[in-house]
Amino acid sequence: MTNNIIQQSPEWKQEKQLRIGGSEIFSLAFHYCQPELEKLGIDLIKEQPFKSALEIYLRVKFQCEEEPILVVNAQYGLGMEDYITSRLNSENQDLEIEGTRDFIINEDIHKLACCSPDGYVEVKEGQILRDFDDTCDITQNMGKGTLEMKTTQHKFNYEAEAGTRFSYIFQLQYNMMLLGHQWGMLACLTPKDKEGDSDFFKGKILSQADIIRSMPNETGGDPNLNGLVALGAIYQHNINALYNLYTYTYPAIKPIQDICKLALERFQTALDNNKLPNPSRGNLDKLKREKKMLAVIHPERFDTLEADEGLNGLLSNRQTAFVEAKKATSEQKEYEIEILKKMGDHIEIEGTEYKAKFDVRGALRFSKIK
Questions:
Q1: 268 φ/ψ angles, rounded to the nearest 5 degrees
Q2: For the segment 308-324, what is each residue's pLDDT rounded down to a tens digit?
Q3: CA 330/CA 268 separation, integer angstroms
Q4: Which of 161, 164, 202, 351 sits in a 20 to 30 Å window from 106, CA-based?
Q5: What are the φ and ψ backbone dihedral angles of 362, each rounded to 5 degrees?
Q6: Rounded CA gap, 172 and 166, in Å?
Q7: What pLDDT band is residue 219 in, cutting at 50, 70 and 90?
Q8: Can you list the domains of the chain with their CATH numbers?
Q9: 202, 72 in Cβ contact below 8 A?
Q10: Are 192 and 243 contacting, i.e. CB atoms less than 8 angstroms apart?
């Protein structure tokens, strides 16, 4: 196991492109281990991974660049990690929690295996923590645990009590396995109001956090402690009142960790045999991302298509129809306005072929006279 690279560094970005991290392991399991997942009772319709196996294959095999996560979402997830760490420590007096920028490569598990843990958690002496499934006690004797943080959508509030998502559990268990930890914790930060999912709201929260972090160091010591001072100030500004923070604690779950290993092995076999996973079906977003990546290695099939005479005509006809439809809609509105003006206080008007009257919702409806 090696740990001489720091997250967000150029070396980290280069190494993780060639390996499989915790956020991707469920995608591989979903593609290569469906029978095993079903035996665990996982609903493969409900539990859909964000990435496809084909996207990961093309990145690892051909170093194709993946579609980047929206900048504001990436910055928001990373920018809230210090806040989550501070809030966890404040709300869990029986635990010691620290963030980390470690990057772990564990070729003893598999030559592609790597993880970027968000932090570590440890039970204080004499304290006992019960796991989420109520199967065992977690104590200081079990050593440090792995911490995985997630910033989730508002709708997670309605799912939280039943438990977190299997994709998150797989990521945590995979990271625990690579780190050699016996237990771990998931922390899911969720906006209380729906507006918290908007890019504007996320940007506003990040801006406020940046302002607070730039405050003078009240400790008068190491400038790096500015972050700690800032986190205290964040609480004073009641940012925590905008979010729910859900935590889920798990011991090592061998069946899940075994599937993680199996997914890596089957993925490696596909790489060795040059067997591409099939493109996604029924998911337009994934298919669009896959086609962009495939265009790098097969430009003759997936890059820009030069239209022949027939296809060029279809393109022209479609756009002509589009423009005419917009023009017709605009003219329709203008006619309706003129009709309303001439109707005055009347609620119905009848012509020789068509009539118009207001419906119960107050909208003017037109129909042909029979």
A1: -60, -40
A2: 888 888 889 999 999 99
A3: 58
A4: 164
A5: 85, 10
A6: 10
A7: very low
A8: 2-299 (3.90.320.10), 310-368 (no CATH)
A9: yes
A10: yes
d(CA 337, CA 340) in angstroms, rounded, equals 5
CB atoms within 10 A of CB 161: 7
**Dihedral, 87, 177, 108, 26 alpha carbons, nearest 10:** -100
The model's pLDDT over 332-343, given as tens digits with 9 standing for 90+, comes to: 988 988 888 888
312-319 long-range contacts (CB < 8 A, ≥24 apart) are: none
E strand spans, the chain: 2-6, 95-99, 102-105, 114-115, 119-123, 129-130, 137-138, 145-151, 183-191, 243-251, 348-350, 354-358, 364-368
* Euclidean distance between CA atoms 49 and 58, whole angstroms: 17
- Whose tokens are 């281990």? That residue is 33
Q: Could you tell me whether strands 183-191 and 145-151 are parallel, antiparallel, or unpaired per DSSP bridges?
A: parallel
In angstroms, rounded to a whole number, what is the distance separating the alpha carbons of residues 172 and 109? 15
- Indicate the pTM of the whole model: 0.77
Which residue type sits at 353? Answer: E
Please report the pLDDT score of residue 305 as a whole number: 65
CA atoms of 57 and 366, how far apart (whole Å):
56
pLDDT of residue 213: 58
Q: CA-based Rg of the chain, rounded to a whole angstrom?
A: 28
